[in-house]
From TrEMBL:
Alphabetical list of Gene3D superfamilies matching this protein: 1.10.10.2120, Penicillin V Acylase, Chain A
Pfam families on file: AAT
Keywords recorded for this protein, A-Z: Acyltransferase, Transferase
Record InterPro entries: C45_proenzyme-like, Peptidase_C45, Peptidase_C45_hydrolase
Coiled coil: none
Molecular-function annotations in GO: acyltransferase activity
Residue stretches making up the Peptidase C45 hydrolase domain: 122-343
NCBIfam families the UniProt entry points to: C45_proenzyme (NF040521)
Protein's name in the database: C45 family autoproteolytic acyltransferase/hydrolase
Amino acid sequence: MTFPVFISTQTEPRARGKELGTHQRKQITANLAGYSDLFAAAGAGPAQVRMWGERALDRAADWAPALADEIAGIAAGAGLEPWQVAVVNARTEILAAIDATGEGECSTSVVLPGAGRPPRTVQTWDWHDHLRDAPMLWELEPRPGHVVRTFTEAGALAKIGVNSAGLGIHFNILRHDSDSADLGVPVHLIARRILDEAASVEEAVGVARSAKVSASTVITAVTMREAAAIEISPAGVAAIPPDPGGVLLHCNHFLDAALAVGERHATERPFTYVRHQHLRDHVKGLSDEDLTARALAMLSHGPDDAPVCAHPDFTQPLNQRWETLATIGLDLPAGRMRVHQGGPCQVAEETWQTF
């Protein structure tokens, strides 16, 4: 099984968006319907969701007008209103506004081996199982000669990815007491601007600090020589460096001491600490040159062990079910990703999709 791939030929934002929306109309529309169901299950009605979508679009237009134009283009191609595509991009913000619980259990590992050797990265991406068909792989050229490749959800401008400047990002959700219903810049747009503009960790941190947000996330930026987990919340932005051994691990709780005071996710989902400990206990495997070995080092199932590899509990409502939908490693020297559809327990050398 592989994820669908789309390669943009248009370079102007609105035209690029329209091209994507036209070719991915069915999947984008399905994503919107899936998120509408998720928001409804969490207690938000259509009028409230529309208001948040319109507000997210306004915030995007103020902070990154070209990305707002691209959203409008996607909507035109998909036969939707711009606010509807903004809803897909702002799903993290809307879930924070609803104060939804249990949203995501991703785990990320980055190891910098030094001596000119490339970073060894891997992450699991967990999300609600009814949205398992949401992801796609998208290649675009935001400016001449600068290529971005991203694993994202159809209609969302970016998530995990790499660029031809030698920078890549991983992506995990966080929750903080300062998260609010006053929607800010969608964190998925921050990820996109980092991929579009940044060639260094310092530049990635600068992009993150420039956005006023209403929901929390961590974007782990990595280059051949450096890495940082950029924790983003309405209360501030912190950049967590690797430890002295070059190891940087992140799950779904804040590591920065000041931001951790407002931690929300771990109070409701304390397994994030257990997963983080599992990663620490398996650093040797996570440092392996071989991506399959790194993915297998992540393998662990709850309830007896850390639930790094998640499977849905169908006795629960859809907003309380999640699944490891992808396992992803970055190949920075090649400017590409290797992506497996599913969790570490299904990984084999032949299941990787190179993009």
